[in-house]
# Entry
Amino acid sequence: MPCVKEADTIQTFQESVSEALKNNTLTTIVSKVEAISPKSFHMDLTLLENRFQFWRSLQVMRKQSAT
# Structure
């Protein structure tokens, strides 16, 4: 059964991801952030690399939750 979680800190986000991976459950995690932008913005990663880096981080969290 799908699940929805709300994460208001990095810790609650990590816990929600770990729980979703552990239970192999389709989960939507809602994170509300403050809408503040920097005066200038420079992105060190391409959008594609950013996506891959996010995916790799999730894989690390998956491995950590399995132990």
